[in-house]
Amino acid sequence: MTNNSAQFDLNTLAAVKPGMDSTLADIIAQMELFLAAPTSNAAAIESARTQMHNLIGVLKMVGLEGVAVFCNEVDVTLSDLALSPNQVSVLHRDVIRRALFGVTHYLDALANGASNATLRLFQEYQELQQLRGLEMSFELDLFYPNLDVQLPQQVLAGAPDGDALGRLKVLRSQFQQGLLRWMRQEDMENSIRQMREAVDGAMRCVAQDNSRAFWWVASGLLECLRLDALPPEANVRKVLSRVDQQMRVTIEGNPGDVQAAMSEMLYLIGGSEAGDDSQVDAIKEIYALESYLPERSSLPPGEVDQLLSVMRDQLRVAEESWELYAQGDKDSGEKFVKYIDLLVAQSEKLDRDVLQYLTKQIKELSDHAKNPETAQPIAMDMAMALLLLGSGIENYNRLGSGFQEQARILSERMHSAVTEQPEDAKQLSELVDLHYEMEQRGDVMGPLANEMLVNLQHVEQGLNAFFSDAHKRDGLIEILRLMTQIQGGLKISSLTDAAQLLAAVQDSVRQYSRSTDMPKPAERYALADSLSALENYMQHLTHGQSGDVWRLQDAMAEMTKLKAEPAPAPAPAPAPAP
Are the C-beta atoms of 484 and 322 separated by less than 8 Å? Predict the structure, then answer.
């Protein structure tokens, strides 16, 4: 029995992915040009459509049929926009951006070992269809399991009956009688048994090869029906009519293409709750249905909340360990890796393929930093990645593809840093542009700003405790860790004024952590005013508003003035007595 976990050619995907990444980046760039001025950029959207056609061809070549269907829906939307550029709205822009970022992340996740469950793109697919005025969208459109599998020996065993054609005609009549009784709701259990016996018999009337798969799967579907285990919204009557039609065309000697019917039956079986039925379980395993229907194994809400709570605690320890490690504490590196491993394991238990990608990237990049010196180039971005993960945990149920795209760009930046490649200005620009887009639609910028605000409030509380009691100087280490995380968010968000002011505050706090000095009243006032200005600024960001940059600049001027003032000269020694 062969477990089929992937229908696509992973080696071919690895070979063509750089080209697909480049094509997607060009499509996104061309669409941004078009969306900026739809009525005067017809060439841009035509270029995007041409490249989308090329991408669809490559996806089909690799075996990613579901993603190709999704991209075809994007292309239909682009075609509509090209015909009516004056109708382009903010909603069009947001839906197109989410769709393109969704494809980008999906392909990245596949390359990093994720299952090929195109249904992860269903939300974006539904948005595209609603944009075109379609009221109903169907998950089945994106469900493309691999049908080329090795069937169990018990299915392949036994030669076809001598008079297979005559036998099939009798079996079809038996199936139709059972189907008619079932539709009339007459003796439901026996009518289902009658249909299943006919289907099992049909399987023995065809060759000992994969042509038997249709009948084996149809038999499993009827068992799910008998157990009342199919999803309530399933259109079983339509599927059973297809089974009858397949009997007819098989009798006529032209079995045809069964892919659509097979996919629909497998979709229903994958979503069934048939308990421990051996045939249904075997079908699910052979066709690896769980990997194509990840949402079908959803955890109870209470268990999800518990997992996320555990991840919060583990992340807090990981953040503390990383800060100490980046400052030179080698022992903290092992602790950091340990807790990242735990976070990866916890994320794998969750249903949605959102946090898994980010945790795995953090794990992979932590392995590159074998000592604090090599960790230093990615210290800031790693802190930001941990902050992003914290935001993902807090907002798990409403994360979109913007979160995923941000994780991808952060990962690329850190990979460049650990391999000693020069900083990619394009990546930084992408990150800044992405933050701008998220700020416009409130996807991730709001939650991240809230995370930074909460950290800043902890900083204020810690400094107030230090100002009140100099013996609480040890708490300054935690304050510096929190400020490093905030600094990462400000940096990639291109919030330059806030980042400069926070850096000045960090310098002062770092000085206090390394000496026994206490801040003078003027320094305390400047620090308090700076933190107040930053808090006010971030509160505006959490509501999607622009902060008060002038107040940040005034606070920065005061901090600069303090640092520029010379230290008071020591008092002269008293003159010796004559």
Answer: no
